[in-house]
Amino acid sequence: MDYFNAPGRNHLFVPGPVNIPEQVLRAMNRNNEDYRSPAIPAMTKTLLEDVKQIFKTTSGTPFLFPTTGTGAWESALTNTLSPGDRTVSFLIGQFSLLWIDQQKRLNFNVDVVESDWGQGANLEVLASKLAEDTAHTIKAICIVHNETATGVTNNLATVRKILDHYQHPALFLVDGVSSICALDFRMDEWGVDVALTGSQKALSLPTGLGIVCASPKALEATKTAKSVRVFFDWNDYLKFYKIGTYWPYTPSIQLLYGLRAALDLIFEEGLDNVIARHTRLAKATRLAVEAWGLKNCTQKEEWFSDTVTAVVVPPYIDSSEIVRRGWKRYNLSLGLGLNKVAGKVFRIGHLGNLNELQLLGCLAGVEMILKDVGYSVQLGSGVAAASAYLQNSMPMIPSRI
Amino acid sequence: MDYFNAPGRNHLFVPGPVNIPEQVLRAMNRNNEDYRSPAIPAMTKTLLEDVKQIFKTTSGTPFLFPTTGTGAWESALTNTLSPGDRTVSFLIGQFSLLWIDQQKRLNFNVDVVESDWGQGANLEVLASKLAEDTAHTIKAICIVHNETATGVTNNLATVRKILDHYQHPALFLVDGVSSICALDFRMDEWGVDVALTGSQKALSLPTGLGIVCASPKALEATKTAKSVRVFFDWNDYLKFYKIGTYWPYTPSIQLLYGLRAALDLIFEEGLDNVIARHTRLAKATRLAVEAWGLKNCTQKEEWFSDTVTAVVVPPYIDSSEIVRRGWKRYNLSLGLGLNKVAGKVFRIGHLGNLNELQLLGCLAGVEMILKDVGYSVQLGSGVAAASAYLQNSMPMIPSRI
Amino acid sequence: MDYFNAPGRNHLFVPGPVNIPEQVLRAMNRNNEDYRSPAIPAMTKTLLEDVKQIFKTTSGTPFLFPTTGTGAWESALTNTLSPGDRTVSFLIGQFSLLWIDQQKRLNFNVDVVESDWGQGANLEVLASKLAEDTAHTIKAICIVHNETATGVTNNLATVRKILDHYQHPALFLVDGVSSICALDFRMDEWGVDVALTGSQKALSLPTGLGIVCASPKALEATKTAKSVRVFFDWNDYLKFYKIGTYWPYTPSIQLLYGLRAALDLIFEEGLDNVIARHTRLAKATRLAVEAWGLKNCTQKEEWFSDTVTAVVVPPYIDSSEIVRRGWKRYNLSLGLGLNKVAGKVFRIGHLGNLNELQLLGCLAGVEMILKDVGYSVQLGSGVAAASAYLQNSMPMIPSRI
Amino acid sequence: MDYFNAPGRNHLFVPGPVNIPEQVLRAMNRNNEDYRSPAIPAMTKTLLEDVKQIFKTTSGTPFLFPTTGTGAWESALTNTLSPGDRTVSFLIGQFSLLWIDQQKRLNFNVDVVESDWGQGANLEVLASKLAEDTAHTIKAICIVHNETATGVTNNLATVRKILDHYQHPALFLVDGVSSICALDFRMDEWGVDVALTGSQKALSLPTGLGIVCASPKALEATKTAKSVRVFFDWNDYLKFYKIGTYWPYTPSIQLLYGLRAALDLIFEEGLDNVIARHTRLAKATRLAVEAWGLKNCTQKEEWFSDTVTAVVVPPYIDSSEIVRRGWKRYNLSLGLGLNKVAGKVFRIGHLGNLNELQLLGCLAGVEMILKDVGYSVQLGSGVAAASAYLQNSMPMIPSRI
């Protein structure tokens, strides 16, 4: 029942799904349970309370949908908007593209603000659109916090500032799939109305939970939002929250226990330490890329993503060949270039439950692959650059001091 | 991280989620993987091929949605119908009620055919409606094969006969959540257009896969179906089936391996033997209920369900107390009475990976609970009736002969 | 990789190895670790401290040998005795026989006190031997607390009384393999010098830990004990206890974490509650046997074992056929009759992490098997007798009240 | 229940216990079973047959003792020798020292041939001893194939040649704990009489199986071997082999299934490929050590071990500090220097289920640690040297080509 076995561990460096810590695997290694017994509601209550911390919200209301990020998107949109509503959406890569596509198919009037792939959202355009929109026809700003395809992180604090500047009432909807629990994210402080993530990203769980968090304003919006929704309807959840049974349909028992374990691990490490670790691993990765003489797909430092790095390959190399070779020779899983950047970039995911030596093993592998495919890299150069930085900046493991 | 521990095994007899066999737990005990590597598509291909067998279809196209049964319903409806379309739907219990509610919220024109809870779908009414509908305004017949709330199994072969008799082109949509892989179900023979189930039922997996199977006619219907859909859209899947990567978004790696193991177990036992085992356990349960002097909620033998038995309690007893006591004293999980039959029935789920002695342990537990709550049952009477039947009818375990 | 699959759970009622609770399986589901890191010694320290509680000792010194019960025996004997030393040993069944055989092979001068199989140790003979032994030639009394082959529990308090009466300095060595953590056992109060058990019995772990506990007097005895020993030598452990690294050779990381989880579960339930549960399940089993019209192999009530019941079958039935049939038809694992009682008894193990409904499922199975093999049992009769008692005597589950 | 958590995977590079592959963890994730049912003997039979392949023997008889390497030693000695028997034993490091200590405590007349730690066994002395021993007073040659403390591999083929040259009948007993299944080992070709290994080494299982393989000559020797033995007695096993139940006492069900999975993985990779992988990883490690300007504890290339490298640190550095720092800062577990080389060497274990990128991650970690502790290593230098070699010599993963 295992396909394509290879000796040793798989080195999983796609930007999701990511490595699951053993503690979480253990927590999920269990039989089903009656989700209507007192146990599951009791646990769900703690989960709903605790999951707010990863959104940095106290006023938000979280929903743990048995779905993926795509479903979480749909939930965010259909609960707050009506067909025909105007949204401003930023197209900067494959995942923002897919979300925009979804918005269109859900019959919103999508005002697409496009940037080159490798650039962040064009917030100047946003400002001018808001300035013009004195009639408040814009109902929502939809933005991907971290574009996984290009390794670009958008500045959400600035989005909020612009909205405030124009005192614009548009909802602020954020895809935090590859950011929340890894990058600095502040739902309340930034006035985000709906934020969402998926369990298989920085939470380091299997796929299967689309975690959506709604501000009071977003909950208010559901009352007038006419988009058709059933499975993704927040109101069905809210009804059961009130009763105290929490679930309108059967949740995955295993994922609930897994989420409990994942949150416990994150809180033990400290969310700020988790974020600092992501910053550190990302910086090390970029130093390696630089040492190899390659370019980051992300065009400006202000957009550098701390969860994924998209590396541009020389024109004479097909980046898919790099990914293929990683899998075939080194048991290393790297991210493909998608759509516009297919063949041009490969991606190193450095998010979730990951440490420095795992990353250095990956970087050593990338070096060998680069050589394999005909790029004359100096073997060890990236590892040297990365480890010089890490050896200076890594803390001791707190539980072991 | 474990709540409400109790010595020994939990006796899980709710009609889902059900017991997961150890082989499946083992198969799912694994790290994440890159779902874009060659391994996952190769496995998905076998799953899509093999899962057809549990639907008894060769012409159907299966979809493995990361969702629950509720999501699978939504997928079945939105891919084949347009807002305003007339459906004929049978209200016979809580789950058919919920599906009808969904149909209404999805803006179909639902023609509800109601029966008393405990009765099957009124197919005479269906016949008369079809007879009248020479204009073919009825676009779909929506029917729950097995109503989990009342333990009623509808006769799908008759539905097909009626449709054929009137040469009516309506789509035939079937909720097989608590039937498929446990009851006799024949998608092709009965001309079912969409059938669906959930992983946590007879497949004995965790919750998280909504398995939907579409006939060629159903696939054809998607071309004109105007219901809004994105996450649940079959066409996104079909696009990736063609490419051979299979997944429009990230699947649960663990559930795929789990499904592989579950199917392997079912095929090893033989699907017909699996169904015969369900028939046997159900018959034994009904004999016990009879011996206790209690009534089956299901009003006629033709509707008796082989996956769940709803037992009517005397009016002076609150059936919720039975369920509560099972959990608090016997580590036994029984199904609550829902909605109209709340307090009046409790349910014994006997589906999935289960054997005779497990059931007899449950029945012994129910006897003690009945005595606890003041019903003067003869202890051992139900077990005696059930085991007299089982001892006569059980086969030897094939692998051990 | 799974042999002889059968639907549903295996009903494991051999008197060891017994069912492992999910919490323990989860705890052991882990990679290896460096046993010389600070983590393993830190955990070992808590284990050594906590394991004393299951022996009811504060003065004893425990050893966690990577071995089985047979190895634990060898450790008990070779660390305290010298070749030629006279031991008094009670032969009452297969396991006492094997221990006596070991004592002989280790060159002790074994003074065997034999009883019929089904009787307890003849303590009158012990008294007379001690009375005569004014020269103190008897160096040790070796007694099996609970003879697993016949379901006989010896009275250790009486042994101590006799030793005290004659002020005899012999060491008091106890095989507690199928008793400790299930039956009332009091190392300090009863002045036991070496007690031992195996992980796969009442602790409900996999096989692999032979847990031996030595009194101060036993430790003193090691100084003059001339039996050859290396692997089983306590002194190698004591040396590393002093250093704080604890292990003279590599332990099983998984079993240590498993033991931690097993002890946590036992302490959560309360050791006295665990023992009361064993008393209850055993009583229920004996009532069933009585209801079937069969005889307990144990000849007097004072010796009835609360961890295993050996049931005598009528002479026209081969008890092995009962065991074979349990496995082939009911997925039920019962204990064979061994040696002198082979073919004459079968055994029901009711020890470890087990609850009432599990036992009733087993009893229902035994009834059907008895009928299968031609014994005209009234189906349901044993279950009725057992559940009448249980329904009266079972407590609510404390964590769920 | 988890102590000293740290983000990401632990990098386990002690020379045992080693990383367990997920396939093996999965296989062991199971409840206990009756070891007297037909299933366990059936599986044991395949294990005993298949395990011979890792010894490269067809005539040997294997035993799967529930014990550690120390117990396996004791089994090898006590089954073949009598107290007072003369053995020739080579002291070249901590593990050969411990085995010699065991031989002395078992009352053999041990003729110790000592070498400097870092050197191999002095086979010239062996030759001269055999030459002189025309009376055949030497009953056994005891040699550690791979001394784990110093990373020294002895030449067993030469031992055999010398024995043959003098036509000396001494038994040839080999500790293959850190060699078998990783280094070239040929029981039959080299005329080894007893070879042994432990499950937690190259087999990549948890600790708990001491696997001993006996030649026909060794089995013959048991008939006259007077050493006291019970738990470790081969004859008890042979008795049950004949009966077909295989086990004189309870085995670990989990380890048997684990061994089945481990062997399946090894055979799938191919034992010769496994060995080649060890050779490759070891060579890479030595190149890194050289690049760092450090010395291998092993004094000549002919003795270089392909499973563990002991690295000599400069006199101003305490090697224990390196190990401590690995654990505290990098989640890297390295081997301590033991006894004579304590503080002077640290050890990198590179055996078992391990791949190239895992090793490179470790080497990158060692570089940072070296810098931490004040050794002015060029970061990346070792990784560069190792990966230059690996990139040239690594094969594609066969299952993925």
TrEMBL record, chains A, B, C, D:
Record organism: Daucus carota subsp. sativus (Carrot)
Residues given in the record as substrate binding sites: 347
Similarity section: Belongs to the class-V pyridoxal-phosphate-dependent aminotransferase family.
The name this protein goes by in its record: alanine--glyoxylate transaminase
InterPro entries assigned to the protein according to its UniProt record, in alphabetical order: Aminotrans_V_dom, Aminotrans_V_PyrdxlP_BS, PyrdxlP-dep_Trfase, PyrdxlP-dep_Trfase_major, PyrdxlP-dep_Trfase_small, SP_NH2Trfase/AEP_transaminase
Enzyme class: transferase
Entry cofactors: pyridoxal 5'-phosphate
Top-level lineage group: Eukaryota
Record keywords: Aminotransferase, Pyridoxal phosphate, Transferase
